[in-house]
Structure formats: C-alpha cells, structure tokens
Automatic annotation (TrEMBL):
It comes from Cyprinus carpio (Common carp). It comes from the Eukaryota. This is Galactosamine (N-acetyl)-6-sulfatase. InterPro entries: Alkaline_phosphatase_core_sf (IPR017850), Sulfatase (IPR050738), Sulfatase_N (IPR000917). It holds the Pfam family Sulfatase. GO terms for molecular function: arylsulfatase activity. Residues 23-186 form the Sulfatase N-terminal domain.
Amino acid sequence: MVCVRPNIPVYNNSEMTGRYYEEFEINVKTGESNLTQIYLKEGLDFISQQATAQRPFFLYWAPDATHSPVYASERFLGKSQRGRYGDAVMELDDSIGQILAHLVSLGIHNNTLVFFTSDNGAAVMSGAHQSGSNGPFLCGKETTFEGGMREPAIAWWPGRIPAGTVSYQLASVMDLFSTSLSVTGVLPPDDRVIDGLDLSPVLFNNSLLDRPIFYYRGNQMMAVRIGQYKVHYWTWSNSWEEYNTGINFCPGQEVPGVTTHTQEEHTMQPLIFHLGQDPGERYPISVQSEEYRDVHRQVTAVVEQHQKDLIPGMPQLNMCDLAVMNWSPPGCEQLGKCLKAPESNPWKCVWPH
C-alpha cells in the first residue's frame, strides 16, 4: 500500500499517540467522533494537575470539530436544529461550560482569564453538512470580507471583568500575546516589533484603543478598518476556475463589483463601507459624498504610515515538500506507526486563495 500523505498525528506533549481516522476515528459518513470529548478530558485533567500543584498555567484548548470533516460525539449528533455543524457547535458550547465550571469548582476562577475566539469566520463553501454560517456578514473563511475575518470574542474573569459588559474595541488574535504577557506581569521582548496590543485597559476599564486593523491576503493588503469604516483597496472572493467547479466562497451573497472572482484593484478609488450601518458590505459609500472624502483622507494617512513601518520578512510557507510531513514523528516506534518518507523534492507552493 502506497501512502501519498500521512494522516494527521495526535500528540500528547511531544509524543504521537495515534492518527486521525486510525486510532482516533472520524466517521465521515455519519459525522460521529469522540475527539472533542478526548480533548475535553485532557484539558480538565491538565487544569486539575496544575491547580493541585498550585502552579500557574496556560491552556490553549483548540478543538477542530467545526473544521471539515465536521464531527460530534454520539450524545450530540442530531440534537441541534442546524445539522451536523450545529451539533459540533453544541458540543463545543457544552465543553466550554464544563471547563468554566471546573475552574469554579477548583476555586481558581477569580485568578483565571478565559478568552474565547476563533481564527477565522466559518467556512461556507463546504456543502450542507460541513458549512457554517456568518449571519449578516459577507462571505466566509479564506476571504477578507467580514464573514471571513470577523470572529466572536468573549473574555471571562470573575471579579476583574464586569459581567455583561459589551465592548466595541477593534482587536486581533495577535493582541492575545501582548495581553497575556501584561496580565502575568511579563515584559514583551524588545528585540522585535510586536504587532499585538495589550487589551488590559479594554478588558478591565472598558476603554477604547484607537487602532486600525489591516486585512491581508498573502502579501497583499486588501482592506483597512478604522472604527466603523472599512476601506477595500482590493476585492476577491475566489477564482472563476474554482467557482465553475461549484466552490463558492459567498453562496447566496454575490454583490456586484465587490465579491469579484478576479482580484480587482481599487487603490485609486477604494470601496468604503460603514459597517455599523451596512455590516454585509453591500452598499459602498458614494465617492461624491463628503463622508467618503473624509474617511479616504484619514485612512490614506494611516496606510502610508503602515507601509512605511513595514519590515520585509522571509516567507516561511513558500516552499512545499512532501518529505517534511509527519511520516515518522516521535512516538511512532512504540505504536508501530512509522512511515517511510519520500525523498525530498521541494517545489514552490501554489496558494490559489
């Protein structure tokens, strides 16, 4: 049997304990898998161990049940009104509730910051069983429209963050690094530029930090957001080649001149949306309006400063090589799961999105 690519390994610390579809079964046909429950038990046990030893801890709990192939355990399959994707979300919701309850039962909730968010909006191009929903926001994962980039964010720290507080702060996942250092009293490294901001004033005082958010797709800055305004310098959903095979990043949401299937440049006259009034990015502000001119002038200055401050980096994902995949990770010997890697034959990666 020739293995083209190895299945994804599952690790306990640095040792492989099995692989997806093998030791860790995912039934693609029915959507049943116990992986979320396995991850939950590991997380709860880790918290207990650290609390018993009175050690501070960092837990990054990142289940992938809503990522294709979407799955849920038997207890949750068929229980939601949203199909398999809803079942997976229901199980994640239950699991997070168990983690919070566990912190309370151990008496460490008043000294623990919990932050819930995601890495991108839901994929909407994966079919009825595998796709999520981004509500009123345009398109989904792999685009720089709001459906692809905007995620929920919930911060929980009893006694420090007032319950029920709503913040309109623009934030990025990159901010979690700086914020984590701040709340633990650790100074950030001073030998590099740190892109993330410390959100402590937002979390504890409900302050608002004046900052832009830059939307990139590869090396291309596609859009910028300042406050409620979003300015598109480039637009693109996915290619006509993909679209014509049935892959649609914006199903039922085509907006002429916005959800383009070729990468369209608008740098001379960018598309500007007020996301408070138009969260679906459907109605660009008239270029003849004073509002457009004021926003364009303000954002242009921000973009020019951003481009001036950029420091070119060495791309780390430009070269692909099947030989570097997880053929024989640590721990495979004990399981008898080591696979022979092909000879190294690197090529320049093709990233169609």
